[in-house]
Specification:
The protein is 24% helix and 33% strand. The longest helix has 17 residues. Strand 5 and strand 6 form a beta hairpin. The N and C termini lie far apart (59 Å). A 6-stranded mixed β-sheet has the order 1-6-5-4-2-3, with helices on one face. By secondary structure, it is of the alpha/beta class. It has a single domain, classed as Double Stranded RNA Binding Domain (2-Layer Sandwich). The chain is built from 3 helices and 6 strands.
């Protein structure tokens, strides 16, 4: 009996982990740009979404900026306000989404002719987008983003999820700052 209760407990944990909202992370970049020429940056918010003052609060902006600074510093970039080579702009937004799922896993006739089941749920999908812009040309050279269901947890530590999200986005940015840039470098990445 004890073995059965342990098994039920483990299955419940697996089920709860499976219900955690997934965050999708992706990126895109200009393949003609030699990223080795960048070593300095400045961070600025791109725009505020007036629809959600909580998501775009000064507290959350500060969390995002601190996480970006930590990630870029670990890659060898230097933060400067005077003549940066990259301008890092970020923004967040949220939208209401309705998801409808339906199906009958019992074959053509289902449960002896019973109709298919259809489920509808509403949720808020949040996005965090990080843009790397060449400061000289004002041209977007790299973009990373994460999107997923808005997290409604009541955690005490609100910094940790932001750091984790920025870290996952910046994993997609494989470039490191170079202190000695060679204009004739053959490698574009």
């Amino acid at each position: 009996m004890r073995r059965l209760s342990n098994l039920v407990g483990v299955l419940a944990l697996v089920w709860l982990a499976g219900c955690t909202p997934a965050v999708m992370v992706n990126h895109d970049y200009d393949r003609s740009v030699n990223f080795r020429k960048y070593s300095t940056y400045r961070i600025e918010p791109a725009r505020a979404d007036e629809k959600d003052p909580v998501l775009n609060s000064q507290l959350n902006q500060q969390r995002i900026e601190e996480a970006l600074k930590a990630e870029l510093k670990s890659r060898g970039y230097t933060n400067t306000d005077q003549n940066p080579e990259l301008v890092v702009r970020y923004f967040t937004d949220v939208q209401n989404v309705q998801e409808t799922q339906g199906g009958n896993n019992m074959g053509y006739w289902g449960w002896w002719g019973r109709p298919n089941n259809t489920y509808t749920r509403n949720y808020r999908q949040a996005r965090l987008i990080v843009n790397m812009v060449d400061a000289a040309s004002n041209k977007l050279v790299w973009q990373g983003w994460a999107e997923g269901e808005e997290n409604k947890s009541r955690r005490q530590d609100r910094d940790a999820p932001v750091r984790m999200l920025i870290s996952r986005i910046m994993e997609q940015y494989p470039h490191r700052a170079s202190s000695s840039y060679n204009q004739d470098a053959t490698s574009r990445r």
